[in-house]
Write a structure and sequence with these properties.
Chains A, B: Belongs to the peptidase M20 family. Chains A, B: Its cofactor is Zn(2+). Chains A, B: This is Zn-dependent hydrolase. Chain A has twelve helices and 16 strands. In chain A, the strands form three sheets. In chain A, strands 1, 2, 3, 4, 5, 6, 14, 15 and 16 form a nine-stranded mixed sheet that branches. In chain A, strands 7, 9, 10, 12 and 13 form a five-stranded antiparallel sheet that branches. In chain A, a hairpin with a 5-residue loop joins β1 and β2. In chain A, α1 crosses α3, α1 packs across α12 and α10 crosses α12. The longest helix of chain A has 21 residues. Chain A is globular, with a radius of gyration of 22 Å. At the A-B interface, β8, α8, β10, β11 and β12 of A face β8, α8, β10, β11 and β12 of B. Bound molecules: N-(aminocarbonyl)-beta-alanine (2 copies). One N-(aminocarbonyl)-beta-alanine (URP) sits at the interface of chains B and A.
Chain lengths: 406, 406
C-alpha cells in the first residue's frame, strides 16, 4: 500500500512553490516558479535513483527500470504548471501520486517486469501561450514543434525563449516512443463524484473542445463628444459576442460549455470609446458532432454581430479537439483495481482537457478521477481530502503494478 | 497678429515628447514623459521672462505682469497630459496657443493693463487616476487635496508619490485666487464645426457627466467542467451591463453618451470562468436633469442584472458634474473677437470636460473651439490644419488682449 501521509506531505511541499495568499497556487508554465517546482520534482526523483530525461518541450520523464528489458514502459504522469490563480491539486496530484507510486515500489523493493516512467508534462493549462496540453500536444505530433516554439505570451516571450530562460529545453526529441500504457490521476474538477458520494471516477474519455482567439477592431473615439451614431465600439461588440457564447452554451443544456475567460481592451481609457478588444472563446461538449456544429456556426453568428456594429471581427481557431475515448483495456484495469480496493466508483467523461487525451493517440490510456470540494477547480479554493488523494493514488499504484506485471 | 508658423512649430515640438509610432502622443500625466513636456514648457516660458510658479497639484502658472498693479490677472491655459493613445492637439493646443499669445505680446512689446497668466493644468484626462480634470478640480475645491493625493493608478502609485517622483509638487497652495477671466482654446473633439464648415466654436457651456467604478464578483471556475447552472460568470454580467449602458445612451438619442472605456478581467485565463471583473462607466448629456436621472436609475438596473446572474455588483460613483454654463461676458468677448477677425462661428456646447468647467466656478470663463478632422479625438489620428490652429489662437489673443485692456 502507498503511504497517504507521505503523499500529502509532498503535495503540500509542492504547493509551497508559488503559494498565493488565498491558499492557492500560481505556478505558471515556464516561469521561475515553475523552474523551482521542476527542480524539487527532479530532486525527489533522483533520491529514488530514477533516471530523469527532458525533451525539447521541457517534458520530464523519470524512469525506473523493470526486470524484463524487452518490455515497453508503463507510463504515468500529469503536470506541475497551474492557472494564474489555481489550486494545489490540479495537475500536481497526478505527478506527486506518481512519485508516491515510485516511492512505494522503491521502499517495498518491488521490481516490476516492465519499466515504469513518471512524466511531468509542460504547459498543460494553456493560460500562458494559448493552447492547453502544449507539451503533450507537441509530443503527440498534434502541433509541430517549430510552430509551438514560436507561440508567444502576452509580453511577447516565445515558448522557445521561455524554455531556454529556465533551462528546461532538454536534448531528447519531443515525440512518442513505444509504451505499453499511460495512467493519469487527476482531480475531477467538477461536481459529479462529490454529489454522488463516489470515491473514484473511472474516466472513459474526454469531451470535445474548440478554442479561438478573437480580435474586434473599432475606432478609438472621445467618450464625451462621439454621438451614438458615430461610434464603433469594439467593447460593445465583444459584450454582445460574450452574450452569444452564453446563449450557444445554454442551447446544449447541462452538457454545454462556452466561456470567454480572457479579455483585454487595448489601450483602455475610461473616457475613450474602445477601438480594439482581444478575447478568447472556447466551447466544449461530450460529443464531437456538437462541437463541430458550434465550430461551423459560431464564426458566422459572431461576425454578424460585429458587422452590424461596424467593428470587424478577426477569429482564429486555435484547435478543435474531438471527443477522445480511452483504451477499454486500461479503463478496465482502473475499474478492477478500484473494485479490488473496495472503493465506490462511477464511469465519467472528463470535462477538462488532460495530457492523457493526446497521449491516448499513440499509447493505450486511462485516467482516474478523485472528487474535489464543490467541484471547484481553476480557483484558489480548490480542495480535496487526504483520504481522497490516498484512494486515487492507491488505484494508480494498483493499476500501474497490474499493467507492468501482466 | 500671432505667428501661425511659430505656433505650429512649437505644437510639433511638444508632440515629439511621447510621440507614438502611429503619429499620436502618449504623455500620461505625471510620468517621465509628462515631466519632459513640463520642462520644455517651462523653458519656453522662461525665455520670455515669464515667472513660473507651481502649486501643490503640479499645476503650472506662467505670469506676465501688467501695467496696473491693482488689476486682477487674465488667465488662459489648458493641459499637456494626454490619453494613453492620444493625439497631438487635445490640451497641447490650448497651452501652446497661450504661449504664442505670450510670445506675441513679448515681440510686439505690448504691456497689457492687467497681468496675464498661462496655466498648464495637471491630469486633465483622468485616464491614469480615475477622475478627469484632477488638477483644476483640486484647485477649484471640488476634491480635497488630501483625497486626491491618495488616489492610485492601476499599479498602486498614488498621485502624491507620482507628483514627488517627477518633482512636480510645487509650494504654492492649489486653490483659487482672484482672477478677472479665464479663456481656454481647445479642439472641439467632435464633428460639428467641421460638418458645418465653421472656423471657430463659441463655447457656451459644457455638458453634464457622471462616472463610476464598477466591480463584479463571481466565482473562478473551470471552463470545461462547470455546467451552465453552476456558473457565476463575472464577465457575462459585465457584458450585459455594457449592453445596458449602450441602451441607456441610445434612449437619449443623439444627445446621449454612455461609455465603458476600461475593463479588466482579474486573473484572466482562457479556461477559467471569470471570477472578478472591474470596469469604468460614464454617461454624459447636455442637461443636468438627464444625468441626474441616469445617476438614479443606472445603479439599480445594473444591480438587477448582476443579481440575476448571481454575481454581486459594487458601484462607486466617482463624480457627478452638472452642466456648466460659461460667463456671458467672456463668451461675448470670444464671439466679438471672432467676428472682428472675420471668422465663421457657431455657438456650441462642449461634449468633453475641460479644466474651464471647474475654473468657471470661481472665475468668469469662456472657451474657444477649433474644428478637428472627422471629429476624432482620444485617438492617435487626431488632426487639425495649421490654419485652424492659427485662427483659434488669433481669437484667444484678441480675447485676452481685449479683457486685459478693458
Ligand atoms: N485539467 C485542466 O484543467 N486542464 C486545463 C486544460 C483545459 O481543460 O482547459
Ligand atoms: N478634453 C478632454 O478630452 N478631456 C478629458 C476629460 C473628458 O471629457 O473625459
Amino acid at each position: 500500500r502507498i503511504d497517504g501521509k507521505r503523499l500529502w506531505d509532498s503535495l503540500m511541499a509542492m504547493a509551497e512553490i508559488g503559494a498565493t495568499p488565498k491558499g492557492g497556487v500560481r505556478r505558471l508554465t515556464l516561469t521561475d516558479v515553475d523552474k523551482d517546482g521542476r527542480a524539487r520534482f527532479r530532486g525527489w526523483c533522483e533520491t529514488l535513483d530514477l533516471k530523469v530525461r527532458v525533451d525539447a518541450m521541457g517534458n520530464m520523464f523519470a524512469r525506473r527500470e523493470g526486470r524484463d528489458p524487452t518490455r515497453l514502459p508503463v507510463l504515468m504522469g500529469s503536470h506541475l504548471d497551474s492557472q494564474p490563480t489555481g489550486g494545489k491539486f490540479d495537475g500536481a496530484l497526478g505527478v506527486i501520486a506518481g512519485l508516491e507510486v515510485m516511492r512505494t515500489l522503491h521502499e517495498l523493493n518491488i521490481q516490476t517486469e516492465a519499466p515504469v516512467e513518471l512524466i511531468n508534462w509542460t504547459d498543460e493549462e494553456g493560460s500562458r501561450f494559448g493552447r492547453s496540453l502544449m507539451g503533450s500536444g507537441v509530443w503527440a505530433g498534434v502541433y509541430p514543434q517549430d510552430a509551438a516554439y514560436g507561440w508567444a505570451d502576452i509580453d511577447g516571450v516565445t515558448v522557445s525563449d521561455a524554455l531556454d530562460r529556465i533551462g528546461a529545453k532538454g536534448e531528447h526529441p519531443a515525440k512518442p516512443f513505444p509504451a505499453d500504457a499511460y495512467f493519469e490521476l487527476h482531480i475531477e474538477q467538477g461536481p459529479i463524484l462529490e454529489r454522488e458520494g463516489k470515491q473514484v471516477g473511472v474516466v472513459t474519455g474526454a469531451q470535445a473542445q474548440v478554442w479561438w482567439d478573437a480580435v474586434v477592431t473599432g475606432q478609438d473615439a472621445h467618450a464625451g463628444t462621439t454621438p451614438p451614431s458615430a461610434r464603433k465600439d469594439a467593447l460593445l461588440t465583444a459584450a454582445r459576442i460574450i452574450a452569444l457564447v452564453d446563449e450557444m452554451m445554454r442551447a446544449h443544456g447541462d452538457d454545454g460549455r462556452g466561456t470567454v475567460g480572457w479579455l483585454q481592451v487595448v489601450n483602455a481609457s475610461r473616457n475613450v470609446v474602445p477601438g480594439e478588444v482581444r478575447f478568447s472563446v472556447e466551447f466544449r461538449h461530450p460529443e464531437t458532432a456538437a462541437i463541430e456544429a458550434i465550430a461551423a456556426a459560431f464564426p458566422q453568428r459572431a461576425a454578424e454581430i460585429a458587422n452590424a456594429n461596424r467593428t470587424p471581427l478577426d477569429l482564429k481557431e486555435l484547435f478543435l479537439l474531438p471527443h477522445q475515448p480511452f483504451d477499454p483495456g486500461c479503463v478496465g484495469i482502473v475499474r478492477e483495481a478500484s473494485a479490488r480496493l473496495g472503493y465506490t466508483t462511477r464511469d465519467i467523461i472528463s470535462g477538462a482537457g488532460h495530457d492523457a487525451v493526446y497521449v491516448a493517440r499513440s499509447v493505450p490510456t486511462a485516467m482516474i478521477f478523485t472528487p474535489c470540494k464543490d467541484g471547484l477547480s481553476h480557483n484558489e479554493a480548490e480542495s480535496i481530502e487526504p483520504e481522497e488523494a490516498e484512494a486515487g493514488t492507491q488505484v494508480l499504484f494498483q493499476a500501474v503494478l497490474a499493467r507492468a506485471n501482466r
